[in-house]
């Protein structure tokens, strides 16, 4: 069984060249790459396939956050599934049936990706939920959607480090928590409001960390990544 890395580096770039350069710099380290909408809009399925073919040992998390009617999401995931990525995701707010149909689609693939759900985007607060007619406070909504995700049989959720404790208590030990908003000691917060160190997030119960700019914007990305791995192992 392949052991998937604990860290995914957010490769927020719009060209295959840039993505390949970063992947190459991290080659051989236990770090996967997260490709998002920006990359996908620019380079599409072929771009993802090119990275997979050039770096077959690098784990890929394809972060496209699907949200549509069940049939459409399932159909999209059937296409994505042929790529052989390790993780992909959707919005839990698309509902139970959408998640179940999506999971069925993914599981029918030759090499099924693990399916994660986004609960409430961290860019939203109580006020913005209220404005779209959602009266439930963010924290309650996060837990509600995490439990719905688990009921649908998905692997886990993408969550803020500050939601780890509550989701872990609600969903138990066997639930993947993929956590962005991570900053090693001494690195800039950028636009992340509430951050946690890699070691603290893992101690709190995160299973995987998404780390972007502290690696990608470092003078020496590979060294920055190695330092993060070292901080996890030795504190
Ligand atoms: O550079 P940085 O480490 O802040 O990158 C974090 C990555 O995780 C980005 O790709 C961002 O879009 C994503 N993300 C996030 N917060 C969420 C969900 C995803 O920062 N709640």
Provide a brief overview of the structure.
The protein has 235 residues and is an alpha/beta fold. The chain is built from 10 helices and 8 strands.
Can you give a write-up of this model?
The protein has 235 residues and is an alpha/beta fold. The protein has one domain: Aldolase class I (TIM Barrel). Helix content is 45%, strand content 17%. It has helices spanning 16-25, 37-54, 70-81, 96-107, 126-131, 138-152, 164-171, 198-204, 213-216, 221-234; strands spanning 7-11, 31-36, 60-66, 87-91, 114-118, 156-158, 176-179, 208-211. An 8-stranded parallel β-barrel has the order 1-2-3-4-5-6-7-8, surrounded by 6 helices. Strand 4, helix 4 and strand 5 form a beta-alpha-beta unit. Helix 4 packs across helix 6 (138-152). The longest helix has 18 residues, at 37-54. The radius of gyration is 17 Å and the shape is globular.
The helix-and-strand class reads alpha/beta
CATH topology: TIM Barrel
Helix/strand order, N-terminal first: EHEHEHEHEHHEHEHEHH
Query: What's the CATH superfamily, by name?
Result: Aldolase class I
Helical coverage, percent range: 40-55%
Major pleated sheet: 8 strands, parallel, barrel
Distinct helical segment count: 10
Strand order in the sheet with the most strands: 1-2-3-4-5-6-7-8
- Low-pLDDT ranges: none
- Provide the β-strand percentage band: 15-25%
